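Quick one before lunch.
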Amino acid sequence: MKRIGYFLIFLLLTFSLSFAQTGKTDKKKDSIKEKNKKEKVKTKTKSEKEVKKNKIFEDDFESLTDSAKTGLILDYHRELFSVDSNDQESLSGGLEWNIQVRDDNNNSSLPPKFRNWWYVKLEGLSTTLPNKINIIGDGWQGKHYVVPVYSYDRINWFRFKPEEIYTSESSGAYFNYYLLKKFEKPTVWVARYYPYTFNRLKNLLKSLEGNPFVKIETIGKTPQNRPIVMLTITDFKADDKQKRRIWIHSRTHPSETGSSFVVEGLIRFLINECNTCCPRVDLKKMIFNIVPMVNVDGVVAGNSRTVPVTSKDLERQWIRVGENESTLVDTVSTEVKILEKTMRELINLGPKFFIALNLHQTHSPPNQRPFIFSNFSKKAEVNGEAGEKLFVRQLIFSKLISKEYCGDTVYVRPSYEPGVQLEKKVFPESWWWVNFKDEVLAATIENTIGINGCFEEWVNYQDQIKLGEAIALAIGKYHQYFIEKKWYRYEAPNWDLNELMKFFIDSSGDQ
Ligand SMILES: [Zn+2]
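Model of the zinc ion complex:
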């Protein structure tokens, strides 16, 4: 127990820590607690030093350097704990931490469900006794059970076991739970889900430098002066006039780290394929324009959904000067302006776009499959004939992805307000719709983090990488069918609407 005195905790990206409850049963524990109290004073001084030191060496643990700016509370708390339940009696006596999940930018006016991301480093964990980690104030409506992850090196990540996770008493829209675990090492990183940092993206970009199929450019700077990067992936030797363009952007919402794994899987797949001869996704015929991380500032700040300072949700910033106008109003966020300007330049440059994907992740209940947000109701009636066609193309695309994705089904689901015309909305898909109607297959694709159909276990980041590969392959097939009009007899597609509707789930009202 002596070692406990050296423990300190420290937090990060998204949090503040508050006070833990202490169990106190017998004399022995009381005396340990007394000792602990005395040592706590020393520990605090030590922890402040540690914070400074960590700011220097933790260059990949990005919110650390930004934590002061964004008002994260650098405090810590540890106590001994005991567990009331008889079953858990033998676990009593370890260490306890509270992790209070914070609002983006500490803005308490944001809806509870905007508060869900957390990623912390804990130091001084017990390796001989269980550690109790309270997660307080997860705002995703309290109904979606999550299985967090941990790592000793930020390279290899592990899921907690379901039996190491317990729900606590929750209040209102916020959900509290705790993790109970004896760790193998005293320093551990713990997160709600597999982190995908800006530094990981930079490493990916570095690994692609010099690749003949990739051009990397900065298309603009965020308000905090970070680059928004676009990758152009194509066979640069082939004539652009024979090609069609695909637009993909990802990570509008910082907590949706899965969307970054999906886009990384897609990028790596395209390049690996074409190190041979691009048999399935032909880069002689396609140009991919990919913005892998839109909300860079939000990711670095450790936000869940919004950009720093203004707390704007970029997904709803595609505000146009008029319903049928594609020009954006001046007041939209910088990141959206940069995307729109780039898209417009590429449209003017040619060749034509035929697909535009917007990658997200749902904080899903178990057993939810990845899905396309259609923006339409079942029949797309308020969007006319072009709306019907686009809806059917989304169904076809979900069928094509499903075929490539471990035999699982990727669904199409109606968006919120499915009865509202697309031009009245402020999503990126509305912008594409106003410009191109059904000529461009514009869609949001949501991946999941729960137990997912064919995997029969909690989805991990490798599964999301596979989804990226499946999307790349589906794009290849879609191009063959709709652009090249090339289809082999044995693969003759069945686009019967009744058949395709098997890929539609009417889940309005669900999240
Ligand atoms: Zn999202």
